[in-house]
Amino acid sequence: AMSAALVGYSSSEEEQEQEEERGGGAQGNPGASNGRPRLPPPAGLPGEPDPEEAVSDDSSRHGGRVRGFPHERGNWATHVYLPYTAQEEFLELLELLVSRARTFVPSLAAMEEFHVSLSQCVVLRYHWIEPFVRSLRERLAAFHRFFCVADQVKVYTNQNKTRTFIGLEVSAGHFQLLELVSEVDGVLKEFDLPTFYKDPSFHISLAWCVGDLAGRLEGQCLRELQDIVDGFEESEFLLRIQWEQIRCKSGNKYFSFPLR
After folding, report:
1. Is the residue at 39 inside a domain?
2. pLDDT tens profile 175-199
């Protein structure tokens, strides 16, 4: 999956293994005016094996990037998020954005799977998965479907500056997302796991590259990308998203929580 991920354009649903930006309720680049803390390194990376299956940590196998925590048997990388199903028009917009952004940073790769994160990537012991999911199900049962608008192009870096992302930041629906996060945080606290970032920037990641290249993507590049989004014929319809379910991925298992 790695070579395909680096070439970077695939609409294939098979590529679930691309563990891209898990844990990405990322903060904006610290150079930005918000002065928020940056996110800790997410765990899973494109093309990585599941923690269950791989105990060695050979960084040459995943583009020289280092994972946020060591592989250990019985540890399951776990992430709670809202899945976004990419339609053809969205993939067309993505292609326009990525090819323009590559004139500034040639190494950018498009994401193959899209979501808004509601948790960081945390580590669960195998025997905690079932009670964790049960607790999530109870806390999320009352939530109704809602809309978000994700139409503001923004640049993100992970905390240790090993990766840079281009994302679409949510400009409407922030309040409902915070309410969801507060329920997910409640579950994380029960299991003594790190909660989500304070004052998060909710977003859908579109593309990523290795290294801290935020400087090259902000300014002129960002303005051009925003112009593409604003001028895209379908963007108003595409980027107003109705969320219908929450998902939790733990290792190679997926759990779904429908919204009412």
Report:
1. no
2. 999 999 999 999 999 999 999 999 9
